[in-house]
Amino acid sequence: MSVDHPPYSGLFLSFEGIDGSGKSTQARLLQDALADAGHDVILTREPGGSEGAEEIRALVLQGDPDRWSAETELLLFNAARRDHVERTILPALKNGKIVICDRFADSSRMYQGQRAGLRDKVDLLHREMIGMEPDMTLLIDMDPAAGLARAKGRAGVEERFEDFGVSLQEHMRDGFLDLAKEYPERITVVNGARSIDVVQAEILALVSTALLDKKHDG
Ligand code: ADP
Ligand code: TYD
């Protein structure tokens, strides 16, 4: 069954976008700004964010990109997400914290759903095993070639989708923009092709409004 959760007092924010769009940079800056303003905030990421989910992260992101079928990969991402929600996200939200998550279920909708044609299965598993969405999702949109150049600038062993090149990134960008139309209340598109500071200021303004709305809603 999906994770059982009564209304919580915290705020659940996610960042989405193609590789190299600036999610991690912006998530960190937002965490710092909110903490400086006196909020209780945690920054977490997917796949990962709990001990077990970090182990699954290594399984799914390292090694031969053809190691898993798309279906197996979907199950692994969902197993990681379930553990992350149970052990990290929901406890923090119940304690009134702001949770900033670098990627969440929209990434499965894109990389396993759109990319591998498994959207029905993504939705089914999400409904049955996860069953919650962020209060607000910041979709950082940018040109795929520029995003890929940024992402390639980082050294590391986690190459899962970056290796698939610009055409996959273009497909994912279009898919993310469609997703924003599918969930207009939740997903806000932010133009990531600007300087880090300008993007940061816009995101902080959006989140400040969401915090005020949450306060007024009770
Ligand atoms: P993501 O988490 O979306 O993959 P990162 O935040 O890791 O992206 O950013 C990828 C690279 O691009 C990093 O080296 C980061 O410093 C750089 N970067 C992020 N945002 C910007 C920006 N607005 N302008 C220029 N470079 C950026
Ligand atoms: P991440 O570390 O956020 O990569 P980046 O910083 O380059 O954006 O995510 C790792 C990869 O995992 C990324 O290529 C997208 C993929 N992914 C999925 O395919 N499905 C998922 O559900 C999630 C959360 C991530």
Structural description of this entry:
The protein is α/β, with parallel strands linked by helices and 218 residues long. It contains eight helices and five strands. The chain has helices at residues 23-36, 51-61, 70-94, 105-114, 119-130, 144-152, 165-182, 196-217, and strands at 11-16, 41-45, 98-102, 136-141, 187-191. It has a five-stranded parallel beta sheet, sandwiched between helices. The model has no long low-confidence stretch (mean pLDDT 92). Residues 19, 23-24, 46-47, 61, 77, 102-103, 107-108, 111-112, 151, 158, 160-161 line the site of thymidine-5'-diphosphate (TYD).
Mean model confidence by pLDDT: 92
What share of the residues lie within helices? Answer: 55-70%
Distance between the termini: 28 Å
Order of helices and strands: EHEHHEHHEHHEH
Query: Main β-sheet: number of strands, strand sense, barrel status?
Result: 5 strands, parallel
Q: DSSP strand (E) fraction?
A: 5-15%
| Count of strand segments | 5
Bound molecules: adenosine-5'-diphosphate, thymidine-5'-diphosphate
Compose a concise summary of this entry.
With 218 residues, this protein is α/β, with parallel strands linked by helices.
